[in-house]
Design a protein that fits this description.
Largest sheet: 8 strands, antiparallel
Shape: globular
Structural class: alpha+beta
Order of helices and strands: EHEHEEHEEEHE
Strand order of the largest sheet: 3-4-2-5-6-7-1-8
Strand content: 25-35%
Length: 180
């Protein structure tokens, strides 16, 4: 596992997104619902949230933005767990097929730090054949790449992305949710 250690420039972000298109076939993110404490799908309506106005504006903006992803949606569910994190609230988890038609929206992020409230859905992550390849925890500025492949490391170096190799760890896996 590799942990990215330095904030990326926009050009590095764009190059890494381009590499994700070569290396991966799906991406995920989550939409928090701070009002839903029991996790029931019946109580989960992000557009009827009783949160503060900033949160309500975020939800409305995200809802308009998400319409572009629905055509490529592979799976969606409600959980308080996302990849390897457990939250004190429930989120709507989206798994989306990585297709070129969505590239303008992925490049809009300009930084993985922006995949967080109040700008975009949270914690953009990429998968290859159901296995997590790139995972973000945007609000903590943490970014991980799950690979031992020398070619992946060479690409990261060419892009100028600084990283450290971490001790062996379990690779988050959501393959049971992906359908191709």
């Amino acid at each position: 596992m590799l942990q990215i250690t330095k904030k990326m420039k926009e050009s590095q972000y764009n190059q890494l997104i381009s590499y994700m298109y070569q290396r991966c076939d799906a991406f995920t993110f989550h939409l928090p619902n701070y009002d839903n404490k029991d996790g029931s799908i019946d109580n989960f309506n992000r557009l009827e949230s009783k949160g503060n106005q900033e949160y309500l504006d975020y939800l409305q903006n995200i809802d308009d933005w998400l319409r572009n992803f629905e055509k490529y949606l592979l799976s969606r569910w409600i959980s308080n767990e996302y990849i390897d994190s457990i939250h004190g609230y429930y989120s709507e988890i989206w798994v989306v097929k990585l297709v070129i038609e969505l590239s303008p929206y992925l490049y809009l992020g300009t930084s993985f730090d922006n995949w967080n409230f109040p700008k975009l859905p949270e914690d953009l992550s990429f998968y290859s054949k159901g296995k997590c390849f790139f995972h973000t925890i945007a609000h903590e500025y943490l970014y991980f790449i799950y690979t031992d492949d020398d070619l992946d490391k060479l690409v990261l170096k060419k892009i100028g992305i600084k990283y450290v190799e971490m001790p062996d760890s379990t690779i988050p896996d959501i393959s049971y949710t992906l359908t191709y």
